[in-house]
Every structure is written in structure tokens, then in C-alpha cells.
């Protein structure tokens, strides 16, 4: 039986997290890769037409919970991750209200897209402003604060929530790694975060995801990797 789950991956984007998730769960899925426009660095029109958001990630699947097994197309990283974990992973990587670390998991599950990644995106936009613009200092200060929170958390546990990988980690890794190809920031002051990235990078599923999903991009797990793109 062919896979019903299709992952549309825009190269050098957060949809890498969805590919990694599928590998961690050992799923049968179809991967369709799309390349950025080399002039604009934006998604091609064919990718934008997949979703009203016009951004990555996008997945397609058969909704077996509907009477007619409707075909669905879904965007938004957290929505895609939750769909895949619940429908194909029997709830794996999603903590439950009765789990000991439920409160911590709920915070970190929402932290990446609610706080950390928006700040990183603001830094991308602010990169076009003069260096002495007050907005630059405000955004850098916010990112530094968020990195401090991540570092403190990882000083207490192997992953964001205890000693087992969860969906919160799947969300977190992109802004700490690949997103720095657009907005460089130094992780040298954060040894626990670097330990965390090293351990993630050694996971067979993470390595396999990059082998399948990327052609030239390598996991950007170092303290200060070279930027691939200019935001000036």
C-alpha cells in the first residue's frame, strides 16, 4: 500500500522539521522537495499555491476520520506536527496532561512559534535597517533573553522536557540551526545548547532527514556557522 502522507519540503526552510519528525516516527511517507527561487530566495509559485499561507511546511493526507476519507492539505508547523503525531504516531512525542512534565512540555511546545521564532523573523526584517536603529538593540536583547531561557532549561535536562525527545524539540531545532543561515547569531556563550545540538545531530533520524531533504545544506550545529544568505 502506498503512503497516504505527503510532505512538501521547501529546501532551507522549517519544513525540514516535518521530514525529521517522519523519520523519528519511522513513518511511510512521500517526500516532495521544492527549491527556492535563486534570485528572490522565496518559495516558487508552485509551492505557494499549495497553501493559503503560501509558506512552508505543507502536508497532504487522507482524513480517515471523515466518512468519505477526505483528502486534506494542511499548513502551519505545529498543526502538521500534531496531525502526524496523533494520526500516524499513536500520540508519540506529544506529552499528556497526566505526564509528570506536562506543564513544562506545554510551555516549550508553544515557546518556539509563540516567542523565539517570531523574534528571529523580526531580526531578519531588522537586518535591512541601519545598524544604529533602536529596533536592532531591542530585538537582539529579546533573542539573547530567549537563548538564556533555553540554556537554563538545557542545564537541567537532556532535552527540553526531560530525558526523552518530544515534539517540543522537533519545533525548537530549526531556529537554532538552519534559520541562522539567514540571521547569524553566536551560540558560543551557551554550552548546554551546543551539547543539545550535538546530540540532536547524532540522531540517525535527523541525519537521514537531511540526506533525503537537502542537496547542499548541512546541519548548522556549530556555535557560529557561516551564513548562507545576506539579510542586508
From TrEMBL:
Pfam (any one): GST_N_2
SUPFAM superfamilies: GST C-terminal domain-like, Thioredoxin-like
Domain of life of the native organism: Eukaryota
InterPro entries listed in its UniProt record: Glutathione-S-Trfase_C-like, Glutathione-S-Trfase_C_sf, Glutathione_S-Trfase, Glutathione_S-Trfase_N, GST_C, Thioredoxin-like_sf
Family, similarity comment: Belongs to the GST superfamily.
Protein name, per record: Glutathione S-transferase
An MF annotation (GO) of this entry: transferase activity
Organism: Aureobasidium namibiae CBS 147.97
PROSITE patterns: GST_CTER, GST_NTER
Residue ranges of every copy of the GST C-terminal domain listed in the record: 98-220
Keyword Transcription regulation: no
Domain GST N-terminal: 2-92
Keywords of this entry: Transferase
Amino acid at each position: 500500500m502506498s503512503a497516504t502522507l505527503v510532505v512538501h519540503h521547501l529546501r532551507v526552510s522549517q519544513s525540514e522539521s516535518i521530514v525529521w519528525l517522519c523519520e523519528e516516527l519511522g513513518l511511510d511517507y512521500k517526500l516532495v522537495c521544492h527549491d527556492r527561487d535563486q534570485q528572490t530566495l522565496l518559495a516558487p509559485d508552485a509551492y505557494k499555491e499549495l497553501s493559503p499561507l503560501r509558506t512552508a511546511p505543507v502536508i497532504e493526507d487522507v482524513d480517515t476520520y471523515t466518512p468519505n476519507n477526505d483528502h486534506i492539505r494542511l499548513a502551519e508547523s505545529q498543526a502538521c506536527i500534531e496531525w502526524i503525531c496523533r494520526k500516524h504516531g499513536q500520540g508519540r512525542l506529544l506529552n499528556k496532561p497526566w505526564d509528570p512534565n506536562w506543564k513544562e512540555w506545554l510551555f516549550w511546545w508553544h515557546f518556539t512559534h509563540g516567542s523565539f521564532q517570531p523574534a528571529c523573523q523580526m531580526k531578519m526584517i531588522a537586518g535591512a535597517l541601519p545598524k544604529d536603529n533602536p529596533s536592532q538593540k531591542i530585538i537582539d536583547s529579546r533573542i539573547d533573553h530567549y537563548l538564556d531561557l533555553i540554556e537554563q532549561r538545557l542545564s537541567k535536562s537532556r532535552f527540553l522536557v526531560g530525558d526523552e525527545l518530544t515534539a517540543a524539540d522537533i519545533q525548537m531545532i530549526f531556529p537554532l540551526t538552519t534559520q541562522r543561515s539567514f540571521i547569524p547569531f553566536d551560540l558560543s556563550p551557551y554550552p548546554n545548547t551546543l551539547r543539545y545540538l550535538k546530540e540532536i545531530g547524532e540522531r540517525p533520524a535527523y541525519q537521514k532527514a537531511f540526506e533525503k531533504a537537502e542537496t547542499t545544506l548541512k546541519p548548522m550545529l556549530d556555535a557560529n556557522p557561516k551564513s548562507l544568505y545576506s539579510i542586508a
